[in-house]
Amino acid sequence: MNVKSAQKPLTASGPPSDHIAPLLNRSRGRGQIALLIRLGWGVASVSLFAGVWEAVWALGGLNPLLLPPPHIFLADFAAQAQYFMPTDVIGQVSNDTALLSLVNTIFATAGRVLAGLTLGFILSLFCGLAICYFRLFGKLILPTITLLAPISPIAWLPVAIFIFGIGNPPAIFMVFISLFFVMTISTISQIESVSKTHLDVAAVMGATRAQTFYHVILPAILPALFFVLRMNLFGAWMIVLVAEATGVGSGLGQIVMQARNTFNSSLSFFTMTIIGMAGFVFDLLLRNVQKRLLYWIPENRVGGSQ
């Protein structure tokens, strides 16, 4: 009798997965609601900024030739997007062609940013690790890195052009150099701050250097390194625009330079809007990658999400 009564709740309640599935669905639902709330606040923030801008213009406080409000520089998409066409295209272009050229320009700039950030992140991680693990290498390399770190990435632009010429390499190099030194020093600092207790436990358990790095050091330093990477993401966009304006010949930076040379304020603000949207999407994607890689970190501590 006791056995039957003990088994009855199991048969009535079903397998454990029946209890876990609703919890998972509820968690996903909360995540989707939180995402919608963040998007809602983002739309409200941008709308408020644009509304104030439009209100100041409506009251006569802005010259539309110098500071055109959003409804002016966003009104005729084809007229603005035609400036993104290659230089050998002459005449009126259709909206489809203009849109394709705009997308190609955005992807060209985004590709340079992504390539530079990826190279900078990976190489700085290994460089910082080598400095901490190999004493002779650290003594020879760290002083030079500390010496070069304060130099503005813009100062490296002539060097990039001298070495790589005109094209994608100098822009990628500029993004790389803007991240490499800062990330290397940050990697060294984070490795040195890893809990000695964790390292001692790994040593007692017989972990090799590689195992200690992958299972102890790397999980400990990645959260801070991703934060540094995200903070440098916005700087990378600034640097790549400077590089494109002077040493590439294409991309969003080249359009900004064209707007300045022609004193086209509408094109300037239109391009600034595109840059802001592209940077926002980049940051959003980076935060999603961070959440997936750093799955052991609570969501409210990943990427500074609220």
UniProtKB/TrEMBL annotation:
Any single biological process term in GO: transmembrane transport
GO cellular component: plasma membrane
CDD domains the record matches: TM_PBP2 (cd06261)
Transmembrane stretches, start-end: 35-59, 113-134, 141-165, 171-191, 212-229, 235-255, 267-286
Domain ABC transmembrane type-1: 102-286
Alphabetized InterPro entries for the sequence: MetI-like, MetI-like_sf
Membrane-related topology note: Multi-pass membrane protein
Record's subcellular location: Cell inner membrane; Cell membrane
Alphabetically ordered keywords of this record: Cell inner membrane, Cell membrane, Membrane, Plasmid, Transmembrane, Transmembrane helix, Transport
Top-level division of the source organism's lineage: Bacteria
Statement: the UniProt record of this protein carries the keyword Transmembrane helix: yes
Keyword Transport: yes
Pfam families tied to this protein: BPD_transp_1
Family statement: Belongs to the binding-protein-dependent transport system permease family.
Protein name as annotated: Binding-protein-dependent transport systems inner membrane component
Organism whose genome encodes this protein: Sodalis praecaptivus
